[in-house]
Amino acid sequence: MSKNRIEFNTDKISDVIERLDKAGADLEKILEEVLQEAAEEITSDTIDALAHANLPAGGKFSTGDTEDSVVTDPKVEKSGTMLEVAVGFDKSKLGAGGWLITGTPKMPPDKKLADIYTNKRFENKMMKRAKKKLEEEFEKIVGG
Amino acid sequence: MIDELNEVLESFDLPYCKQGSMSIWDKYPETFITFWNNDSPDHAHYDDHRYGTAWDYSINVYSSDPATVYSLLDEVREAFENRGWTILSKGFDVASDEKSHSGRGIEVYKLEI
User: Fold this and answer.
1) Could you tell me the CA-to-CA distances from A33 to A37, A40, A47, A127, B32 in Å, in that order?
2) Burial category of A29 from C-beta neighbours within 10 Å (exposed 0-12, middle 13-18, buried 19 and up)
3) pLDDT tens digits for range A63-97
4) What is the count of residue pairs from A and B with beta carbons less than 8 Å apart?
5) In three state form, how does the secondary structure of B8-39 look?
6) Do A119 and B97 touch (CB under 8 A)?
7) Which of A109, A118, A120 is opposite residue B20, by nearest beta carbon?
8) What pLDDT does residue B94 have?
9) Based on the number of CB atoms within 10 Å of its own CB, is B96 exposed (0-12), middle (13-18) or buried (19 or more)?
10) Are B39 and A120 within 8 A, CB to CB?
11) Predicted pLDDT at B37
């Protein structure tokens, strides 16, 4: 089943991951929670974007099949040494989610959805949140 | 940076336009290119001054010939790489308004200091 994915570049949070590991934290559990939280936020933002009043073509593509194709129950799964979670639109279902993100020659990308799925700033925001959460977990562990 | 983008796209001698700018009545050209500026955030800030811009564009190729979509996109990728842009994938499918055409796109990045 083909869906969108978010990937956390752990290079950007490697220092706090290392500290957590040295402190004896259950790293996999913490990272799973962080990823799950991020996925749920992305899902909520996606649903909100679809409900936005100014969608292209008068919102024609935001209802019915497109809405039904949103992954509403993202679950973090382990795949080898990676943790991954599918978010966004389930490409195996009917719907115009992909169209809304990339646009077409006759329809510009939907700004809110494009910001979530193609804009690096959103990804950076997620990484900053993840780093903050990991720092908080570290403080909990060393704080006793 | 838009000037450089235009130079690269013009070098293919094909119609090109901003994604979403064609009207619903326009007929698709046989093969064409579209672009979209995803973002252009400031790269950094020092002493309250911005330093550099991180340009991020999507470049999409459409054609009635599926083989051309792939081969042209490879050429587009190479052309941007030769001008110092960074491209991190071989491409992704993009939606077409017309059943006669298919499309694929890439994201291109360049740091302007």
Assistant:
1) 6, 11, 21, 14, 44
2) exposed
3) 677 777 888 888 888 877 777 888 888 777 766 67
4) 68
5) HHHCCCCCEEECCCCCCCCCCCCEEEEEEEEE
6) no
7) A109
8) 92
9) buried
10) yes
11) 94
